[in-house]
Amino acid sequence: MDLPAAVIVETVQAEGGVNVASVDWLRRLERACRARGVLLIADEIQVGCGRTGPFFSFERAGIRPDLVTLSKSLSGYGVPLSVVLVRPEVDVFLPGEHNGTFRGHNLAFVTAASALETYWRDDTLSRGVARKAELIGARLGRIAARHPDLGLTRRGLGMIQGLHCSDPRTAQSVSRAAFDGGVLIETAGPNDEVLKLLPPLTIEDALLDEALDVLDHAFAQAVRPRRVMPSGAEAAS
User: Fold this and answer.
1) What is the model's pLDDT at position 224?
2) Are 11 and 42 in contact (CB under 8 A)?
3) What's the CA gap between 101 and 89, in Å, rounded?
4) pLDDT for res 102
5) Cβ distance 4 to 38 under 8 Å?
6) Given phi > 0 = left and psi -120 to 50 = alpha, else beta, which region is 224?
7) What are phi and psi of 88, to 5 degrees?
């Protein structure tokens, strides 16, 4: 049986429902790839650039991917830019060979360089992410405790966190109610059952609190109390 050429992994599965891979699992995956000559590719498009605290989300596991994909906030100013980092030992491209229409442009290069120089000259941004992550986690924990009947569980790492709802309809209703309150929060997971928080890393505390207040209120508005009918069937009151 032929082995795969590579394994692609998100250390935090974003669209899949904010599932966090354990450090032990990531290290075992790297060992398995090395033992079989399979390349390890880290997809950092949503969870890199400081989203989990350090610049790369895989740093917490101490692994060394062969390739790393970066995009999204890499430009630092919302302009399109993506980068593929390749370990020199496996780089087979000649200069100018890897080209195409969507490789970036001057403005993105300038803003990306400025973002790196501004936010990654020290650990200030990483420490800020860790602090805000605690605030988000605490607020989500309180929301879950306030609605025990909804089977809410908190998940995530750094400033990508979510609330898993036992009923996907709950997540979708809360997302709509939050939008009405001025907050964009998408759903993720196989059945869109997870409310995924992905705020800007530089968001001010007051604005973050305001957004979490809206989310808290959205649960109160979207999740209407249920009563048991005489037949035993549930109906919205």
Assistant:
1) 67
2) yes
3) 26
4) 62
5) yes
6) beta
7) -50, -35
